[in-house]
Design a protein that fits this description.
The protein is mainly β. Helices cover 7% and strands 63% of the residues. It contains one helix and eleven strands; from the N terminus they run αβββββββββββ.
């Protein structure tokens, strides 16, 4: 068992408090819909992967403005360390005039390391990501760190027929001013139906920072995950993380 990273937890709590204390400039509520298929690794199968489709709306279930499609290949270094290579395409629209096509097109590669810690009922996921981005043809780098905590409610592990709470905070940095680009905070209630199907519903607040001002938006999050279970796989507890 790994010792908990106290410094990371303190940063997580501080960011959560600060994000909640700041009044959002944009009080409208949008919607994020996330559908994911995951092939997790285990002790017998080191290689895995995932694919995901996501859509977003400017209003609550209205005014479509964004979609992304991405996939990745993962490798389990051991039961608590997973490396991943991913790629995706991202498109933003003017929701008032969808016919003119995307206003922003992005293509992205990234390298990622995920570290899990299981402390009785508390499950922590540390995710470190480096991104190479082409936004309307302009190349950029970005660096992300996310701390996600899961708490199962009716079992000690997140297994079939388990209700759980998921809370995370993620910070985004880039190599351009302002270097601190974004903060994303989320809280959700989830239910793992069986070995394969997982549902989550909750809230995400995303605050973006520019050289001139900052802006934030609240969003309803709905997530559906299907986990592929291989034959002769070794049973292992997996956290139902969002891959965005």
């Amino acid at each position: 068992m790994f010792k908990i990273n106290i410094g990371a937890v303190l940063v997580f709590i501080l960011l959560t408090v600060c994000s909640s204390a700041v009044k959002a400039q944009d009080t409208k509520v949008g919607t994020w819909g996330i559908a994911t298929v995951v092939l997790p690794g285990d002790s017998a199968h080191k290689w895995g992967g995932y694919s995901e489709i996501q859509t977003r709306t400017n209003g609550a279930f209205t005014q479509f403005q964004y979609y992304e499609a991405k996939a990745g290949v993962s490798y389990d270094l051991d039961k608590n360390f997973t490396a991943l290579l991913g790629t995706g395409t991202y498109h933003t629209y003017d929701y008032t005039d969808l016919d003119k096509g995307p206003t922003t097109n992005e293509f992205r590669f990234w390298e990622q390391m995920t570290v899990n810690q299981f402390l009785d009922r508390f499950k922590f996921e540390h995710r470190y990501r480096i991104e190479q981005r082409w936004v309307n043809g302009d190349y950029r780098n970005r660096f992300r760190y996310r701390l996600n905590m899961f708490i199962p409610l009716n079992h000690k592990k997140i297994i079939a027929d388990t209700w759980f709470i998921s809370v995370f905070d993620e910070v985004f940095f880039n190599n351009r001013v302002p270097n601190f680009e974004r903060n994303r905070i989320s809280a959700a209630l989830g239910y793992q139906v069986d070995k394969s199907w997982i549902l989550q519903a909750g809230w995400i607040n995303q605050r973006n920072y520019t050289a001139i001002q900052s802006s934030a938006k609240h969003n309803i999050m709905l997530m559906l995950m299907y986990r592929i279970n291989r034959k002769n796989s070794v049973e292992r507890e997996h956290v139902p993380t969002t891959t965005d």
